């Protein structure tokens, strides 16, 4: 299996009143900003933000949930294909990396451009099967869609796109149209498709 590698996380905000608490004592409540909201905060500059939001952004940047060894958890898009990748998809991925700073990698599961059952099986078992329950909860789709009725593994056909965080697949979609639509949506919003659903 050949992999060609090319190269954000969230912020916590807010506090809420405990329901039915006559004292009005504030209880901590975690609410996550999307990447698009974060980008907006960064774009307008700290001077345009309220003191509370400035503190929130500063504090959440150091939150344990979003950091590993002092850096933001790495995230990338992985495009699974058989043989030469779609030029349209590659163009969108390059645009995404340039405009949104979202890295990508291409996983060609073929052997000399032909179906290779071992590469397909390895990708299915190591990248998807280990995260099956989480992926079903997040996408609502079983990873069995990546297998044919005869039992063959079809991770790369039709092409598959996966969101990978800290080396783990957290979301995926299958079919050429869905892959292109997903990348275009990220380009437009700056938000990864797994963000809200994962609740992280």
Strand fraction: 15-25%
Kindly report the CATH topology of the largest domain: Glutaredoxin
Number of E strands: 9
Tell me the major beta sheet. Answer: 5 strands, mixed
> What's the structural domain tally?
2
CATH class descriptor of the largest domain: Alpha Beta
Counting H and I runs of at least 4 residues, what is the number of helices? Answer: 7
Overall mean pLDDT score?
Answer: 76
Strand order of the largest sheet: 1-7-6-8-9
Spatial extent as radius of gyration: 20 Å
Which geometry do the CA atoms define?
globular
- Level-2 CATH architecture of the largest domain: 3-Layer(aba) Sandwich
Give me the strand/helix succession.
Answer: EEEHHEEEHEHHEEHH
Q: Which class of secondary structure composition applies to the elements? A: alpha+beta
Query: How far apart, in Å, are the first and last alpha carbons?
Result: 31 Å
* Low confidence ranges: 8-33, 49-72
Can you describe this structure?
- The protein is α+β, with helices and mostly antiparallel strands and 200 residues long.
- The chain has two domains: 57 residues, no CATH class; 128 residues, Glutaredoxin (3-Layer(aba) Sandwich), CATH 3.40.30.
- It has seven helices and nine strands; from the N terminus they run βββααβββαβααββαα.
- The chain has a five-stranded mixed β-sheet with strand order 1-7-6-8-9. Strands 2-3 form a two-stranded antiparallel ribbon.
- α3 runs parallel beside α6.
- The longest helix is centred in the middle third of the chain and has 14 residues.
- The protein is globular.
- The two termini are 31 Å apart.
């Amino acid at each position: 299996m050949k992999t060609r590698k090319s190269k954000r996380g969230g912020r916590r905000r807010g506090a809420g009143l405990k329901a039915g608490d006559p004292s009005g004592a504030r209880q901590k409540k975690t609410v996550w900003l999307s990447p698009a909201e974060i980008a907006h905060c960064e774009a307008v500059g700290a001077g345009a933000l309220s003191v509370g939001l400035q503190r929130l952004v500063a504090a959440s940047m150091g939150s344990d949930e979003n950091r590993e060894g002092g850096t933001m958890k790495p995230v990338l898009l992985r495009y699974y294909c058989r043989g030469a990748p779609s030029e349209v998809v590659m163009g969108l991925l390059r645009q995404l990396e340039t405009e949104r700073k979202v890295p990508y990698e291409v996983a060609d599961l073929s052997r000399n451009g032909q179906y290779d059952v071992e590469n397909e099986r390895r990708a299915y078992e190591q990248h998807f099967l280990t995260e099956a329950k989480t992926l079903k909860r997040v996408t609502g789709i079983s990873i069995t869609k990546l297998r044919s009725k005869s039992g063959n593994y079809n991770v790369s056909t039709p092409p598959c796109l996966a969101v990978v965080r800290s080396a783990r697949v957290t979301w995926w979609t299958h079919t050429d149209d869905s892959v292109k639509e997903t990348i275009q949506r990220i380009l437009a919003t700056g938000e990864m498709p797994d963000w809200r659903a994962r609740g992280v």
